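All the exercises in this workshop are built on plain-text protein records. A learned vocabulary of local backbone shapes supplies the integers on the structure line. Once this layout is familiar, the rest of the handout is easier to follow. An example says more than a description, so a record of this kind follows:
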Amino acid sequence: MAEIGISRKIMGMTLNIAVDDTELLKVDSVVNYANDIYTAVQAEYSNKTQDSSRLRALAIYTIVSELQTIKGEKDVFLDTNTKKVNDLIKKIDSLNLQN
């Protein structure tokens, strides 16, 4: 694995980054997703503002909002499963099984 420098255009700006050569597909996927969100935000807000900084901020807000939703759903899922596992352990312990 070798670190390489690459240049990608993200949300209308050129970004030079150093990545592991095995991560190129991941980087391209991330950049494409960010650009897709940015394009959608541009389409939605272009009649309200032409300020590219504001449009980028709105795109970042959208992405972070999605991440927080996913994280929240993951936390709820983990909490629910943790409670189920703990309840199962209590039931097994209450059976007084011999070792």
